[in-house]
Amino acid sequence: MSHSTQSTSIPISTAAPLFSQMAAAICVVFLLAMPAHATDVVSNMKSYLAAWNAHDADKAASFLVEDVTFFDASVGTPLKGRENAKKNVIESFINAVPDSKWESIGDPIVNGETVAFEWQYSGTNTGDWADGTSATGKTFEFKGMSVFRFKEDKLVYQGDYYDALGFFKQLGLM
């Protein structure tokens, strides 16, 4: 018994648009399958970064619950409270780097009310830091990762992890 298999080939001019349509359909399926709260968490994350990028400390602080925990791995000791985080982190960075830009890179990872994402922070240090360190006038750019935990659309925890030594070297402080 002999089998004859016949292969059919699709011209590349036909296959490319079909592939694009299939890829788009797969993306739509994944987006529709994503729980609604996951998109809310990512939307909240992006809105919080937008407030930082608008250099609006009040708006950025409005995303924090009153008793937020703000952890900067390079400092090691968490800050507690919205006003403390606003004064010692948000305002410090916005005042020291008035042209700062905080951008997420790639797709965030969402688990319930928690979002983790890679980012890039850049700008020119033209203002003094809250700890009294004078402006260096130097431009910098560094990458890091953050973990945000939300509860009812507000940040209850922010943990930032980045190469502080590389950052300080770019500023000429080390």
Describe this structure in words.
This protein has 174 residues and is α+β, with helices and mostly antiparallel strands. The protein has helices at residues 12-33, 36-53, 57-61, 82-96, 164-171; strands at residues 64-72, 79-80, 101-111, 114-124, 139-151, 154-162. A six-stranded mixed sheet has the order 2-1-6-5-4-3. It is globular.
What are the secondary-structure elements, in order, as H or E?
A: HHHEEHEEEEH
- Average of the residue pLDDT scores: 85
Number of helices: 5
Query: Can you give the helix content as a percent range?
Result: 25-40%
Strand order of the largest sheet: 2-1-6-5-4-3
**What is the makeup of the main sheet?**
6 strands, mixed
Beta-strand proportion: 25-35%
Assembly annotation: single chain
The low-pLDDT segments are 12-20, 22-36
| N/C terminus separation | 80 Å
Protein structure class: alpha+beta
Q: What is the CA-based Rg, rounded?
A: 23 Å
Number of strands: 6
Overall geometry comes to: globular
